[in-house]
UniProtKB/TrEMBL annotation:
SUPFAM superfamilies: ARM repeat. This is Maestro heat-like repeat-containing protein family member 6. It comes from the Eukaryota. Signal peptide: none annotated.
Length: 787
């Protein structure tokens, strides 16, 4: 058993001495009696008895799995003779996993893998040697006390020969350990600890020897590294391979530190900084890590404050980040990363463009940009540079057609003017929506985020883009936020803001979900119906029309009277489109008003009959058709079957007679309502009014208000600069009737215009409640001839 245990330490013995001290025959017999185990059972048994020896055996088993490491030999006799002390520290050479006798050896072995395996081997070996020395307390070193035969001798038995490969590995390890103890002259084993230092190796020394000499043991902070790289590039023309690797590695692992440090140490983007930005742009994964930090700086105008890992919280210019982005955009490899952040980049550049155009640039920003202008010969105004950066972004995304379309329509120039900027932003949105629906939708969603910009100058361009992008926006994702945004700007006092909000509501109310939730805005929409702007009134009418086109939506009893009163005034609007929409909406309200609101609505519907009758003669056939349809709906709403019958027969003259015959006491009122149409620019409308007034005058005879009404008619007709023959005839008839009434009342003919005005004032007042007069059956009035 002792011989077996000692046989495990053969690897630590020196080479066998040839001479008179050769092993005795008894020792050979002991060797023949020792048979190595077939498996690891004996080895495991040994490990249980000797822990130190077992640990070392485990180390050797691990080492056998690695490529063998051997020492360069200076001659064939080196394996047989003792190790020479002057050989010194030799280099370790890695061999491939091939037979040691094969001449084919790999010359391209992975150095890093070899160094790692060597570190593991030497560290484990050092620990095993230390444990072995500790356990052998009675021994001053491992010596050849048993004089066991050398396994390398030719007289070894067959079992030792079978493990020749393992023995060679053991010998290689033994030789390397012997070499490490440089002061040892005896190669039979490890020297005595009384006279030599401890053979244990320092793990720190081993790692210091094998590690990369370019990496310092004390890692500096990332900002310091970035500053060092920037300083080194100041004296270089290009970025070498090692610097490029360091820049990309730092930017991927610490993007915030790299970006902020570079923006602080080189805000104007000097030549060295531009080289770093271009290096970053050459790697798409690196750009993906860097872009969010650049965008964070760009979105905080005019300065962004963030603390880096070294504690520096100095502000960085937002325009400096835009300048760095502009340099990256020049590198083609960045396109894939730009696609990922395209919508956010576009919004950030658009914000820079708007705010630098409509706001006075702060002093510190102006000073900074002056330095950038001198450094790169850029545009002297930041907003022009923002346009240049936006063009570069669109071109990098391969949307050159948008850039060219804006050029043809002079959209880029309009973007640089504060008064036309909102129109140019809408134009840009339309050009993008034509071919890039998804991109516009992403921009619109980003604009609707709650943390979007709150600057007043940003509202109008933001709304202009949003309104144009609503057509391609998926409203199922942003119904609530979109309606809330439009409602907020609808109450604005700024005409442009609520004009854009109305445009947005016109699109949104096409959706049934939006239409059902528009009721809280009805009061504001009613107010806007009286606005002086034609377009505002038109869009307000369109919003109401879109709402009432959906099923199961009714007009409340409180809204219907207010809305119809306002619409009745819009019948006489100068714009034919407003007139058309108001008449159509009036018809819709009569159809969709709730049952409780029909009775209060009858008064307004009665007032509308004369106006609708007049506009049935409108030159615009759409207005004439809508008036006829609405008049038919009003007759049905009032349950006037006589009026409905005449309309179906298309006999408008009979309709007027029926209207006056229903209540002759209201003839004066109808006559007075017809007066404004005598001043209409349309000849058909004036003629229709005159014919109706002729019929109304027939019913007005004998009433106290007749003289007053006729006088007003004459005044209105006398203001016509180019009267028709019908007007002249009516003026003659009414003038004769007025003279008769004045003569019977004791008034003389006025001698001048002033006296005529006094006569009119002294005439009996307008009295619609006067007793109705009965026309004389035998009287033949010229007015009746006009019927």
């Amino acid at each position: 058993m002792v011989d077996r245990l000692l046989g495990l330490f053969r690897v630590f013995r020196g080479k066998k001495k040839k001479g008179p001290e050769a092993a005795s025959p008894q020792q050979h017999e002991n060797l023949e009696q020792f048979q190595p185990p077939e498996d690891d059972a004996a080895l495991d048994h040994t490990e249980e008895k000797e822990p130190a020896h077992g640990c070392f055996r485990k180390t050797l088993k691990t080492f056998w799995k690695f490529p063998r490491i051997r020492r360069r030999k200076t001659g064939s006799a080196a394996a047989e003779g003792p190790a020479k002390p002057e050989s010194g520290l030799t280099k370790l050479q890695a061999e491939p996993d091939v037979s040691p006798d094969s001449p084919e050896r790999s010359e391209n072995c992975d150095t890093s893998v070899t160094e790692t395996r060597t570190k593991i081997l030497l560290t484990s070996m050092t620990e095993d040697v230390a444990i072995t020395n500790t356990n052998n307390e009675g021994t001053q070193g491992i010596t050849n006390t048993n004089n066991s035969p050398d396994p390398a001798e030719p007289s070894e038995d067959s079992e030792v020969a079978r493990n020749d490969q393992r023995a060679k590995a053991d010998m290689a390890v033994t030789e390397d350990v012997d070499i490490t103890n440089a002061k040892t002259r005896d190669t039979q084993g490890i020297a005595n600890t009384d006279t030599m230092p401890s053979p244990t190796l320092s793990q720190e020394l081993i790692f210091d020897y094998f590690k990369d000499p370019r990496v310092s043991s004390q890692q500096p902070q990332v900002p310091a590294k970035v500053k060092n790289i920037h300083q080194r590039l100041m004296s270089q023309v290009t970025v070498d391979f090692w610097l490029q690797t360091d820049i990309l590695r730092l930017a991927e692992e610490h993007p915030a530190d790299v970006v902020l440090t570079l923006l602080r140490c080189a805000p104007t983007c000097d030549r060295a900084a531009a080289m770093i930005w271009r290096t970053i742009g050459s790697s798409s994964p690196t750009v993906e890590k860097v872009l969010p930090v650049l965008l964070c700086v760009m979105e905080n105008w005019p300065l962004h404050s963030m603390c880096t890992s070294d504690g520096d919280n100095k502000d960085a210019f937002a325009l400096a980040a835009t300048l760095g982005l502009w340099v990256i955009l020049q590198v083609p490899e960045c396109q894939e990363a730009m696609n990922l952040y395209s919508s956010r980049l576009f919004v950030a550049l658009l914000f820079h463009l708007v705010i630098t155009t409509q706001q006075i640039t702060p002093v510190e920003v102006a000073t900074f940009w002056r330095a950038c202008w001198e450094e790169h010969h850029l545009h002297c105004k930041p907003n022009r540079f923002a346009v240049q950066a936006m063009k570069a972004l669109l071109c990098r995304l391969q949307w050159d057609h948008v850039v060219l379309a804006m050029e043809r329509k002079r959209g880029w120039d309009m973007l640089l003017c504060a008064d036309t900027q909102h129109y140019a932003v809408g134009l840009l949105a339309r050009e993008l929506c034509h071919v890039l629906d998804h991109f516009c939708s992403s921009i619109a969603l980003r604009l609707l985020w709650p943390h979007s910009r709150k600057e007043p100058c940003w509202d109008v361009p933001f709304l202009a883009f949003l309104v144009e992008a609503l057509e391609c926006l998926d409203l199922s994702k942003c119904r609530g936020s979109t309606l809330k945004t439009m409602a907020r700007y609808l109450w604005s006092e700024c005409c442009l803001r609520h004009h854009l909000a109305l445009r947005g509501l016109t699109v949104l109310t096409k959706d049934p979900w939006m239409a059902r939730r528009i009721y809280p805005l009805s009061q504001r929409l009613l107010e806007l119906l009286g606005a002086p702007g034609t377009e505002v009134v038109s869009m307000s009418l369109r919003v109401f029309m879109n709402v009432l086109q959906h099923q199961n939506i009714l007009v409340s009893s409180t809204t219907a009277p207010k809305l119809t009163e306002t619409l009745l005034l819009l019948f006489d609007h100068d714009n034919s489109h407003v007139r058309l929409l108001s008449i159509q909406l009036f018809c819709k309200v009569m159809e969709l008003v709730v049952d409780e609101g029909k009775k209060p609505l009858k008064t307004t519907v009665n007032k509308s009959l004369l106006a609708l009758f007049i506009y049935c003669h409108d030159e615009n056939w759409q207005v004439a058709k809508a008036s006829w349809e609405t008049l038919l709906g009003a007759a049905e709403f009032l349950k006037r079957s006589d009026l409905k019958l005449q309309l179906k027969k298309e006999q408008l003259s009979k309709f007027a007679e029926c209207l006056l015959a229903e209540d002759s006491s209201s003839a004066a009122e109808h006559l007075r309502r017809a007066l404004p149409y005598l001043q209409s620019p349309q000849e058909p409308l004036r003629e229709a009014a005159v014919r109706f007034m002729g019929m109304a005058g027939h019913y007005l005879k004998g009433q106290p208000a007749e003289l007053h009404v006729l006088t007003q008619v004459l005044e209105a007709m006398s203001e016509d600069d180019n009267p028709s023959s019908t007007n002249l005839q009516i003026q003659a008839i009414f003038g004769q009737r007025c003279a008769e009434l004045r003569s019977s009342a004791g008034f003389r003919e006025p001698g001048s215009q002033a006296e005529y005005q006094k006569t009119v004032k002294r005439a009996p007042g307008f009295n619609v409640t006067g007793a109705p007069g009965t026309p004389d059956a035998g009287h033949s009035c010229a007015c009746c001839k006009l019927q």
